């Protein structure tokens, strides 16, 4: 879909944990926590506080009175999206909870832009979060368990990112979006989520270019959400075999956020991953004029620990949003 | 006439063909490195256990009692290192070398205990204590019952 009156990204704010702060993009984040609990009594509470901090940060940066915000769109990875629900309790804004697994940031920006372009809202606040420790305990093993991770495994980002969308004002604009289909290529390995999501991302990218009659070279940067190194290579190969050469501008937020020495194996994952890379690095580079037209393809693995144990494969999804400086 | 059919999937790769692509692009587990590390770490842990057995024997404990006391000491050390947040680092390095010895068992009990304390002592620690070690206990005990029964019949 193409927005008739493209919504503006008025402000953005990112909060991350210590590991992300030490990564190659460390300097691009607005706030880096010193530890992953930040003085709270549990990781879940910490994650919710992190989301609030990111959302309040975005509001403050735009100096918009909170009363002018029509909707808050938020999501995270925990059961019943509790981090978002509890953050919404404090924010006291009309709230729409979203679940798109790790693709939620792109989904939120797409839905928020639809609300604004459709005339239902003037200002929409979008925010998502993920936390390494809350995700580990829900999806995998207790964090102090001594076990080795697979080479294709990814590290859930501790981070929350938020953007404030407005109907008018100055800043980068969301010009178009492509809502993805759920694609399942029968990948059952929960330690290889990049492989599970790659076909969905590839499908969305193909659909986007088909609909818009554009080519990858028309974009300065095409970033998938959290495919990791393995998923990115697979997505490239899938697209190549489907007749689309992605060129050199195709990368992945999950590859960008950590470096090799941080021992994350295949890179990063989690809602936080694409949201903080977008709110930090990408939007800063757009504002600096370095990037003109960027596509973010949020990637999500739509499984649960229960579905995986019952032998179901992992359905993937990819949502694309295009941001122009 | 307009095309009324659903949009065809654009990907020209089938799910079956994708499985071979995954194999090609997914890095292989570093088996030789892991095996060597497991051998070294497991060996070190067992050597420490042996040191305790010898130590307790020199205090005058009988062989069986000395090894029981050494096992208890190793469990304590495993639990302590888990509590200090060191054992998961050892586990990452040593793999099976640090999972198989009794210290690994202590780790698999203490880790969930620490993790789920925030959900309370009954539904948290109580209910989740054996999430990792549970299957080992269930099938370990079941196997020992079967073996014991066979042993009983044979003698």
TrEMBL record, chain B:
**Name of the protein:** Stage V sporulation protein AC
Q: Which NCBIfam families match?
A: spore_V_AC
Q: Report the transmembrane regions from the record.
A: 35-56, 68-87, 93-113, 125-154
The protein's matches in Pfam families, at most eight in alphabetical order, are given as:
SpoVAC_SpoVAEB
Domain of life of the source? Bacteria
PANTHER family per the UniProt record, alphabetical: STAGE V SPORULATION PROTEIN AC, STAGE V SPORULATION PROTEIN AC-RELATED
Q: Which UniProt keywords apply?
A: Membrane, Transmembrane, Transmembrane helix
Q: Which InterPro entries match?
A: Spore_V_AC, SpoVA
Organism of origin is Desulfosporosinus nitroreducens
